[in-house]
Amino acid sequence: MKAQNVRTLFLVLSVVFYLLLGAAVFDALETESESSRKEALEHKLGELKRKYGFLEEDYREVERVILQSEPHRGGRQWKFSGSFYFAITVVTTIGYGHVVPLTDAGKTFCMFYAVLGIPLTLIMFQSLGERINTLVRYLLRRAKRGLGLRETEVSLGNMVLVGLLSCVGTLCVGAAAFSHFEDWTFFNAYYYCFVTLTTIGFGDLVALKKTDALQRRPPYVAFCFVYILVGLTVTGAFLNLVVLRFLTVSSDARTAEREDEQLLTEEDESDAADGGRSRLTLPVEEGGSCVSLVSFPSDDLRLIGPERSKPPKPNRLGDLICCWCRGLGVCGSSSDLQREHTGGHSNPVFYTSVSYRVDRVSRAASPHASPSAVALCWERNYRHSRRSSF
Amino acid sequence: MKRQNARTLALIVSILTYLVVGAAVFETLESKQEKTHKRRLDARKYELMRKFNLTKANFEELELVVLQLKPHKAGVQWKFAGSFYFAITVITTIGYGHAAPSTDSGKMFCMFYALLGIPLTLVMFQSLGERINTFVRYLLHQAKKCLGMRQTEVSMANMVTVGFFSCLSTLCVGGAAFSHCEGWSFLHAFYYCFITLTTIGFGDYVALQRDDALQNDPRYVAFCFVYILMGLTVIGAFLNLVVLRFLTMNTEDERRDAKQKALMTVGKPRGEVARLLPLSTSTSSTVVANNATKAKDLKGAYTEVLHFQTICSCLWYRSKEKLQGSIPTMIPQEMTFSDAYLQQNSNCPHYMDPGST
Q1: Is A156 an interface residue toward B (CB < 8 Å)?
Q2: How many distinct structural domains can be found in chain B?
Q3: In this structure, are B127 and B61 located in the same domain?
Q4: Domain boundary among B261, B278, B296
Q5: pLDDT interval class at A279 (50, 70, 90)
Q6: What's the burial of B113, exposed, middle or buried (CB within 10 Å: 0-12/13-18/19+)?
Q7: A15–B120 CB contact, under 8 Å
Q8: A146 vs B: CB within 8 A
Q9: CA distance A170 to chain B (A)
Q10: Which backbone phi and psi does B198 adopt, to 5 degrees?
Q11: Is Protein transport among this UniProt entry's keywords (chain B) (predicted)?
């Protein structure tokens, strides 16, 4: 089976298994508490019903009034600040549900609003996250240099550590603030921040619901909005660093053809210019090159000086991931590569299979032969399979 | 200003504008209704209080009990079926909130569960979505061929159209199903499906809350779970097709900038490097030794940029280790690398460049 299919199947099975596992654990943790609470509440309700002499319809009526009045308890929810809060919960997909549009027109507008707003917000957070990661990388390198460390390059491990600490820091700051302003325990406030910044947004705990805060305390309202947006940026930056590379982009066949032409012409031009040395450019057009998510160390080639004896420090985190890739046994054999089509070339697994194949052709002699061989073999296969597609 | 920075700034400004505009529109649509609704409810509340001779304190007590009982009304929420439903709402980040962990250990586990589950689910949906897009492209290509069309290539527009209509029909199918099974109007059921599949998940409409469906109607329960997961796959495939490429724009630009910067300063490649690349049989021996140190510095900066954008750079290192550790997969030593490579290249004549001159 093709490598991408195996990988996808494995992921689907993992998620299903993960759901089953989660269900079992939540069942174990919550069922008993749920049933005992339910008993207690129903008992209490029975008492109150008897005390006030409610008939069943009476109680239904009271219940209806109470449930529908609930969102109003926090004050006016649809004035500008409340609507802004709601708009945030829509485009960030948090969706507390503490207030929801009741009119049909509101519901319809909400849907159209989300259709444009959600992708826009996704792109914005990733864009901003990438900028932040670049800045952090720069700062870390300066710091390393300033501290006089020998190795001033910033590794992925460094970045992941910093990202992780920022996320935890953001959650703690939020927890402290909300536990103070909303009078929650620190744990509940932390849970609220976590649920918000992962955009789950249960709505069991919601800020700004107490006693007309939306109208009466504008600085606190501003703080909440800023916290949510900044927090999502920090989380987005961390996701950009860690998760985005695993998301494979669908390629476009026509763009592939165009890129092929481009590569050829580029090569011809640079051949003439550089005196025969062709350029191994990766197509990074915005038309949706599926290789954009993964760059190959072949780019290092041109800068590898002949006197360089020490290879760059291996990336340990990457090692783990690669070893995971390989351990799955999804490294394709050479025959697989011939059948490889355009889809999902940016799979790390695909490159795994290419390099696996290259092991068989490269020489032992030059340590540099490997990356160049890998790069060229990749190039050749990439183009070959592109040609053979559609 | 650098392109990435300008782009990021523009996006921030657009989002803020979008939020402000949205807030204004929502206010116009909902605020008046809210006022009348509240007034009516308050009036009814006072009526009831008078009718049953309730004091404010009494009513507040009643309120508390009723509100706490609300999730229980919909049936047992934490038996296996309900927990599975809950687990889905966590890792897909839908998060209705119809049931939320009340115990501290439940909340704690929920957080750890989400920490691993959400990225796993994201990667899974995108992976599956990409496979589906590839498959659809293949089918479309075959269809175009069968219909005897001249242009049998599947364009982006074709794919987007197909994707869009799949999403719309998924929502409509869900709308029809849930309006029938839950007794909602079609618009409300459609709205429910939309809010669910975009993972917003308000919780104003939640399936499986009527008549203890979670325990009594396993087939409907299965349908709901399958619908949610498949619907998210369809939406995920569409996002994979249309949006995902934009999420890496800045990263690509960074890489391109770094490359250009490195190339401009390093200058022409040395002969050694040229020798390594068999495509160029140019024997230009201009070893630019004085550029070496500059190259090293820049290489440092450049590789830094690439290091953690390269998912499997370790593969190179590991295969390099393998090479040095004499894995018996090497070609015979008498063949030069170029020859071996050219041999492999026999079926790609257009790529083979036997030297510029």
Answers
A1: yes
A2: 2
A3: no
A4: B261
A5: very low
A6: buried
A7: yes
A8: no
A9: 15
A10: -90, 5
A11: no
Which chain B residues touch A297 with a CB distance below 8 Å? 306, 310, 313, 316
In a domain, B171, yes or no: yes
Segment B232-261, tens digit of pLDDT: 999 999 999 999 888 888 888 888 888 888
> Based on the domain organization, do B60 and B124 belong to the same domain?
no
CB–CB of A62 and B62 under 8 A? yes
The closest of B175, B294, B300, B163 to B234, measured between CA atoms, is: B163
Chain B residue numbers with beta carbons less than 8 Å from the beta carbon of A187 are 104, 107
Give a yes or no: residue B1 inside a domain. Answer: no
Average pLDDT, chain B: 80
What is the value of pTM for the model shown? 0.71
CATH number of domain containing B182: 1.10.287.70
Q: What does pLDDT average to over chain A?
A: 73
Q: List pLDDT tens digits, range A200-227.
A: 999 999 998 877 788 888 899 999 999 9
**Residues B156 and B29 grouped into a single domain:** no
SS (H, E, C) chain A: CCHHHHHHHHHHHHHHHHHHHHHHHHHHHHHHHHHHHHHHHHHHHHHHHHHHCCCHHHHHHHHHHHHHHHHHHHCCCCCHHHHHHHHHHHHCCCCCCCCCCCCHHHHHHHHHHHHHHHHHHHHHHHHHHHHHHHHHHHHHHHHHHHCCCCCCCCCHHHHHHHHHHHHHHHHHHHHHHHHHHCCCCHHHHHHHHHHHHCCCCCCCCCCCCCCCHHHHCHHHHHHHHHHHHHHHHHHHHHHHHHCHHHCCCCCCHHHHHHHHHHHHHHHHHHHHHHCCCCCCCCCCCCCCCCCCCCCCHHHHHHHCCCCCCCCCCCCHHHHHHHHHHHHCCCCCCHHHHHHCCCCCCCCHHHHHHHHHHHHCCCCCCCCCHHHHHHHHHHHHHHHHHHHHCC
Distance from CA of B179 to the nearest CA of A (A): 15
- Residues in chain B with CB shorter than 8 Å from the CB of A287 are 156
The predicted structure's pLDDT at residue B301: 54
Question: Do B225 and B166 belong to one domain?
Answer: yes
Q: Between A54, A120, A351, which is nearest B18 by CB?
A: A120
Of B123, B281, B322, the CB nearest to A246: B123
Question: Based on the domain organization, do B238 and B144 belong to the same domain?
Answer: yes
Residues B162 and B254 in one domain: yes
Report yes or no on B237 lying in a domain: yes
A9 touches chain B (CB under 8 A): no
Q: How far is A159 from chain B (nearest CA, A)?
A: 9
Co-location of B127 and B14 in the same domain: no
Among the three residues B73, B92, B109, which one is the final residue of a domain in this structure? Answer: B73
Q: Note whether A48 contacts B61, CB cutoff 8 Å.
A: yes
Option in A5, A123, A364 nearest B326 (CB): A364
Range of the domain at B184: 120-261
- CB-CB neighbors (< 8 A) of A91 in chain B: 15, 18-19, 22
> Percent of chain A beyond pLDDT 90?
33
Residues within 8 A of B (CB atoms), A 194-253 only: 194-195, 198-204, 239-250, 252-253
When pLDDT is averaged across residues B298-321 and rounded to a whole number, the result is 55
Residue range B83-126, pLDDT digits in tens: 999 999 999 999 999 888 988 989 999 999 999 999 999 999 99
Residue B315 — very low, low, confident or very high, per pLDDT cuts 50/70/90?
low
Q: What is the pLDDT of residue B164?
A: 95
Nearest CA in chain B to A300: B303
Task: Select the more confidently predicted residue: A343 or B293.
Answer: B293
Question: Are both B147 and B53 inside the same structural domain?
Answer: no
